[in-house]
Amino acid sequence: MKPPLLDKEKIEKRIECYSEEYQIEIVTPMFGGGVTAGVVDETMPIRATAIRGHLRFWWRMLYGKDKQADELFNAESDIWGDTKKKSKVEILIKAVDNYKEYQRNLTDDPVNQNNERYKKKNSKGKLVDAEGKFGFENDSPELYILFSTITNDKKINKYLLKEGFKFILRLSFSNSLSDDNKEVVRDAMRAWVCFGGIGSRTRKGCGALKFVSNENDKDFVKKIIEKSQHKKEIIDLLERINCQGFCGNATVDSSKYPQPAKICAWSRSIEIYKEFRQGACFARTKEYGRSHWSEADSIRELSNCALPKHKDPLKETKDLIPCFPRSIMGLPIIIHFKDSPQSSPIPNKEPMDFTITPKYENKNYERMASPIITKPIFIEGKWYPFVLILPYQHALDMEINVKGKGIEKSIEKSYGKESIHSEKLKKLKPLKNQENAIAAFILYINQKNYHLLKQKENKK
Description:
There is one protein chain. This protein is of the alpha+beta class. It has three domains: 8-101 and 161-242, no CATH class; 107-156, no CATH class; 261-452, no CATH class. Helices cover 27% and strands 20% of the residues. It contains twelve helices and 19 strands. The chain has helices spanning 8-15, 48-63, 69-80, 141-145, 147-150, 179-195, 219-228, 231-240, 261-278, 295-303, 393-396, 437-447; strands spanning 17-26, 89-95, 103-105, 119-121, 127-129, 132-133, 136-137, 159-161, 166-174, 209-212, 244-247, 333-335, 354-360, 363-364, 372-379, 382-389, 399-405, 410-415, 451-452. The strands form six sheets. Strands 12, 13, 14, 17 and 18 form a five-stranded antiparallel sheet that branches. Strands 2-9-1-10 form a four-stranded antiparallel sheet. It has a four-stranded antiparallel sheet with strand order 15-16-11-19, with helices on both faces. The longest helix has 18 residues, at 261-278. The radius of gyration is 24 Å and the shape is globular.
């Protein structure tokens, strides 16, 4: 059942407004976005309230960075409303497609663009059917990001909203909203479509978006769509939000690729992120070997639990632990050890799960959103893997709380920001002598042929 759309004339008469419509396509699988966290809503998979939140976020990124708190509040409430003032922007959604025809089910086998089953070599070198979930192969970059849909104990999320699903976004502006502020809202919408998404895990590319041109589009709508896909305009947006954007090489639709270009671009953006955090010979001593990152050895020392072969920290981390440098890339982090016991800690076994959460001014919080966005981006007719680095001073100022089970009692301990980034931590192998994990990640993707999107400098 498609969600109903209110009559346009009735809306405009009720709030005395002017409306414009944009058709938008979801280009990567979406999960979450409904009333229940992490679950696709069967009656209304795309919710106007969620889009309003995204538009407000990108509006603050574009127009809030130079404003004092009071000035920001007044400017934001003048457009979006507050507890005492009605919003001058109304958002309505209409599904173009039937969501039941756009589902990736948990039990779907991995298939290619021709709907043929993936093949892979087994330990004996024989080609066999590949195993996977949601149509993606096990150990793929996509399932690395979608892990929370698979590990959910309640098993309530049986499907994802499949890429290709389209909806119409209607923006209705109050007649009291100035033309300048209408343009401000459109800018926020462009930033959201270019750099954001809809649903859960949008910062790792789920629910990524693209404008879809329509013959009936008004001329100014067509211009907005063109601007959202033009390299120079995208760079202008990046400069205005004070962010760094990096593109890998373009992907193309081809029979030699198992997935369409937009999914390949997404997969590659995730893959480079996964390599940096867990890749063999960079983040690990070998495939499935010990981590060069210091979190695991720090937890072993804190809990006094470790396999005999892991009892001594790696030589490179021995004088640095306890330290948790990947915290800057987003929290919470659940440190899970492959060979940990099920019920209670055992000294000669690996630790049970520990959780790292953010702390500011002696107050504990549940999460700190990652300053790193990985997603596909559509620029001038081609799909590219894209990495966006948001401002992260708040992550540099953060302290952390580490919590888990010890041998005799529960352990909860706080650590200052020097446990996340400091001069001595530059010695860690994955940091490559950089100030922090995000700076090291930028160096890493540059070495992997990701280039910074920036305006060409004028030659003198």
